[in-house]
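Hi everyone,

Forwarding the result from last night's run.
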Amino acid sequence: MVYTSSLDERYGLDSSLNLWNAHPGRKDAFDSQIEWLEALQAFAASRDDLQIVVRVHPREGTKKRTGISEHLTQMKSAFAEPMQDVIIVWPDDPASSYDLMELADVVLVAWSSMGLESFRVGVPVLSWAGNMYYVDSDCVRVATTKEDYFVTLDKMLNQNPTFEQLREGVRYYHWRTFIPCIDMSETVDSNPYLTSYWPKAPDAQIGIIQDILHGKASDSIAYNTQQWKAALTEQSQDSEKKAITEGIRAFIEVTFAPPQHKSMPLWFKVVRKVVRILTKKNLTWENRALPQVQNFSHLRLECLRGTQGDSELCRRTRNDKNLRVLVSNGSENTYYRHGIRLHRTSKLIAHFGLMISHEAQ
């Protein structure tokens, strides 16, 4: 699965680094994304076991801007003819990048943040843009020459994702996303419809915010790193493993059986409109318009490979409401819950099932 990037992201970062006099210099395997896609097409044509799906960045299309980008025009000119073993999903095509990611053995990016989204759920990622967005690690590889790129890609295609890679991906995602931040969750309401409330800094964080602003502390990264190290115990790794395993169970459950939305009743919409006119305040529906957060720790998930006794699994999950059984056959998955069979084509879920089975052993 290939995700292209819009060029403004690269230009913006290059400009910022130049402004800060901190640009490390480019180390890219390809001169352009068009050259990259042409090389991938040739690579796919040389094999009989590979299909490439290219998701062109949605911001390049007309839905995200007033007109088609110049870069998209160049791409459509370069790939006007159908290509063997390559499917291009154009920006305005009605497809979800996240649904496509479920089908991937490997995700290929230049500097797209979809790489970040992919390896945090255990999908291996390969980037060709050096010194920009990713660093070479266990969960994401970075190749800065054409030769190294295709040697690395060939190796990654023959490897199944492991729980350890998933763990590294979760850690990497946490580091990139949360370590630079100050935790404001104590005073930020979880309801996105609450527009009349502006959160204050939590009392516990005011000190470090003031220290950073006045130069008494270096930055939030150093502060959070210190806090993280101080919080580690001998049980931290076991707790991490348990949390990731429960996260897999939750992901599988809500993928096959999404929580239902509770929409606002008509009477509440009328009352809210009247209150807004009279008081200029906006009533909220107490988060009921959103799926409620669930605790999946009570669920027991069995992961099986190949074909299994269908009626027996239906009977077992009907009699035991906390039991879930996932049967994977290649990319095809059948999920048994409450005596009902649910199907989904997803390489990602099949890999999750394999990880759970290995960890249970």
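The chain has a mean pLDDT of 87.

Cheers,
N.
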